[in-house]
Design brief:
about 0% strand; binds 2-acetamido-2-deoxy-beta-D-glucopyranose; Peroxidase, domain 2; binds protoporphyrin IX containing FE
């Protein structure tokens, strides 16, 4: 009887190993092998955001950049980061392993620049198997965080698709030359709250980046989605959560692929 039970246990251990090497991400990946993993990550992230609010925005953006360059493979454990700032939450799929390489040129070509037009944005996201809906919902991340003057300068001096008073209000801290690193909020209204005001800004030609405003210009294919999210926070949160899962599923390394770095900044 006892040996049968041991055999049964042994079977589950092997089955567990087999499932693991089969390589699927799952929200319960650490439940038995490291049950405190998520609460430890959560505590650390809460403490970091308490110390410096922008860390929430930085982590969100880091996850985007990680995923768009050869898949989400730096094991960034984003445990519902945005929910600490209010906003949507989703079950993060776990079991990611770390890459053993990094590519500057892949980073340069895969991450869309803020000068992108809507057709480039669509094709850039499509190359990651992300839809127009994913693009518009994920861009809602710009409801928090900051951008540097050098990245929106030409927009506030040279573009016609921008609210004139809004452009003027930014020119004080972002002169025609110099002060490249001066910062402005991506969402001028509530820069620290995860809400749908980013989309309301776009309807009023108050997107900070050229790429933001490309999502709503009166005739763009994204216009309809911007209108929906501007009107309906629930729809935005729902689509954002789904899109984050889609983005997080870009080519993760699982099973025995890659490695688990002992020092995050170095290949073992
Ligand atoms: C659609 C294409 C996108 C473009 C062209 C774009 C571009 C940018 C740029 C230029 C900045 C300012 C960076 C700086 O000043 O150095 C920024 C900030 C930010 N982006 Fe995006 N982004 C895009 C999509 C996304 C996505 C998909 C996410 C997350 C899911 C995201 C999250 C953020 C966040 C949170 C910040 C603020 C970071 C901070 O304050 O530290 N962005 N983005
Ligand atoms: C708190 O934030 C500051 C930047 O605002 C940073 O230099 C410091 O390392 C942070 N401290 C902790 C404990 O995270
Ligand atoms: C990537 O872009 C940076 C900044 O524009 C540039 O300095 C660097 O040379 C580029 N590297 C590659 C490999 O394309
Ligand atoms: C969008 O940008 C791409 C890349 O810069 C360019 O080739 C294309 O002509 C632009 N499309 C439109 C409609 O402006
Ligand atoms: C997108 O989907 C295709 C077909 O399933 C797949 O071959 C490709 O690797 C996927 N690309 C990414 C970036 O996940
Ligand atoms: C605005 O456009 C003009 C003409 O194309 C150019 O000379 C100038 O450098 C641009 N200014 C900014 C701030 O981008
Ligand atoms: C809006 O975007 C569409 C799609 O790229 C483009 O054809 C159109 O010219 C743009 N309209 C304005 C006013 O910029
Ligand atoms: C705006 O949202 C409400 C529900 O929040 C919905 O009843 C209404 O149809 C929406 N209007 C538009 C134009 O999407």
């Amino acid at each position: 009887m006892a040996s049968n039970f041991s055999l049964l246990l042994l079977f589950f251990v092997f089955a567990g190993t087999f499932l693991e090497t089969e390589g699927k991400l799952t929200p319960t990946f650490y439940s038995s092998k490291c049950p405190k993993a998520l609460s430890i990550v959560q505590e650390e992230v809460v403490a970091a955001i308490k110390n410096e609010t922008r860390i929430g925005a930085s982590l969100l953006r880091l996850h985007f950049h990680d995923c768009f360059v050869n898949g989400c493979d730096a094991s960034v454990l984003l445990d519902d980061t945005s929910s600490f700032l209010g906003g949507p939450s989703w079950k993060v799929r776990l079991g990611r392993r770390d890459s053993t390489t990094a590519s500057r040129s892949a980073a340069n070509t895969s991450i869309p620049p803020p000068t992108s037009n809507i057709s480039s944005l669509i094709s850039n996201f499509a190359a990651q198997n992300l839809s127009l809906r994913d693009l518009v919902a994920l861009s809602g991340s710009h409801t928090i965080g900051l951008a540097r003057c050098t990245l929106f300068r030409s927009r506030i001096y040279n573009e016609s698709t921008i609210d004139a008073a809004f452009a003027k209000s930014l020119q004080g801290s972002c002169p025609r030359s110099g002060n490249d690193d001066n910062l402005a909020s991506l969402d001028l209204q509530t820069p620290k709250h995860f809400d749908n005001l980013y989309y309301k800004n776009l309807l009023k030609a108050k997107g900070l980046l050229h790429s933001d405003q490309e999502l709503f210009n009166g005739t763009s294919s994204a216009d309809k989605l911007v209108k929906i999210y501007a009107n309906n926070t629930f729809a935005f949160f729902k689509h954002f959560a789904k899109a984050m899962v889609n983005m997080g599923n870009i080519k993760p390394l699982t099973g025995s692929q890659g490695e688990i770095r002992t020092n995050c900044r170095k290949v073992n």
